[in-house]
Give the backbone structure.
Amino acid sequence: MKIAMMTNNYKPFIAGVPISIERLSEGLREAGHEVVVFAPEYKEQAEEQNIVRYRSLIKGIINGVSVPDSMDRKIEKEFKEGNFDLIHVHHPMLIGKTALHLSQKYNVPLCFTYHTRYEQYLHYIKAPFLAGIMPRYVNNYMSQCDMVFAPTPMMQEYLEDIGKSASCVVLPTGLKEESFEPDEEEAGKLREKLISGKKFLFCTVARLAKEKNFDFLFRALSIRKQEQGSDFRLVIVGDGPYKPQLLKLAEELDIREEIFFAGKVSNDQVKNYCKAADLFLFASQSETQGIVLLEAMAAGTPVLAVKASGVCDVVVNGKNGYMTYLSEMEYANKLDSMLEQNRIYMEQGAIETARKYEAGEIAKMAAVYYNTAIQNHRQGNDREMGRNGRWRIAGIKM
């Protein structure tokens, strides 16, 4: 089949949505399907086949993101000429509206992935009053789609709670096979370089932004330093607008020496940073799926995270890591206990968990979902649901 992937952001911008789209598209192509990604232009972008770059109103604002012009006539021109079987859109706004228009105008099935808890990002546009409006907007958008994808079972429940009219299935982001193959020699060199004479090395991967909850993580590490001394170093992989505040906070908490900002790191190197670390630390409560948690697990690194959406679906206490409540003291204490125990079992459990998310298997699942959406759309019963409010799809356990 021929699929049009439509998005408001894509590489070279580094974030969870572009990574998810790239991996799914590659998996589908390897399975014999044709995928064309409709994405905005960026200042520095590589020319690639099967990507339609539409105009951006502004290039390179917050952390390199572009403001897309979803009204660009090039989108409809390329879509009409492409003769697509299905649209898979990854945002309900901007390109989401365009995708809905094209779906209705050309009678093409529309699938939508809910990647982001949008109400948790409203501080960027200083519009907290939209917090109550966004769930209603998303629910209305979902009701006009042929199928809705949630990245985790917990997010599936959330979407069904905000709108029972939305028929929703789970489609997580997959992991490439290379994620399971860290370079042991390179990881060893990184550890020797980064640990800087300390006993333990921790790693985290995230965009440096307020919603990633670094303040909590820094305060928890400050407690550990006060109780156990300066025996650790945290390597932060990523960059973003919140870095100046984090530098200041690290100074205030007297942990500047224990924090190393690695900046942007190529995707093929992230696994080596994870492998170099004793533990992967995470405190974000805004994730819909913990992709970076799974990447750390694929490298065999146990996780310590704050209990939240996107985390509960992948972290199993005692098997591949631990979760705590939003308490710096509890987090610091659990960190201590994890360092004291033999972590070989959790390292093996982490890899076992990650294996369930191999990109090839996720792509096969997506193809089944797409075919169901196409068949139901053609038959005119695309809103038919099972007894529990979910799609009846042959071959996939719901």
Notes: Residues 119-124, 382-398 have pLDDT under 50 and may be disordered.
